[in-house]
Write a structure and sequence with these properties.
By secondary structure, the protein is mainly alpha-helical. It has a domain at about 25-30 and about 40-95. Helices cover about 30% and strands about 0% of the residues. It contains four helices and no strands. The radius of gyration is 16 Å and the shape is globular. Residues about 75-80 and about 85-98 have low confidence and may be disordered.
């Protein structure tokens, strides 16, 4: 007989996966996934923190569409590697879903 646990399975809890490159932790770096623009990591953070929901949605969409999954999750970290707060699966992406 197979026992089935009623406990929830938590996926993705714990440390964020390592970035594909430590350069993404530097605000002056031009991220590979923003290949069509001269935007730096620091500017991306500013776009993602904008009070304009359309601006946030555009840049979050670019991040989610173009970046390696490991690099998308840099946003779940606190400190210089954060793209946004709390993280891409949070409320700031709600505009992209519609």
């Amino acid at each position: 007989m197979i026992a089935i646990s009623a406990a929830p399975i938590l996926v993705g809890v714990g440390a964020a996966p390592a970035a594909t490159t430590d350069a993404l932790l530097d605000d002056t770096t031009r991220p590979y996934f923003l290949w069509w623009t001269d935007t730096t990591v620091g500017q991306l953070k500013e776009h993602l923190a904008s009070s304009d929901p359309e601006e946030r949605a555009y840049w979050m969409g670019a991040l989610l569409r173009e970046a390696n999954t490991r690099d998308v999750w840099l946003s779940g970290r606190c400190g210089p590697g954060c793209w946004s707060s709390p993280h891409p699966s949070g409320h700031r992406c709600a505009r992209n879903a519609g």
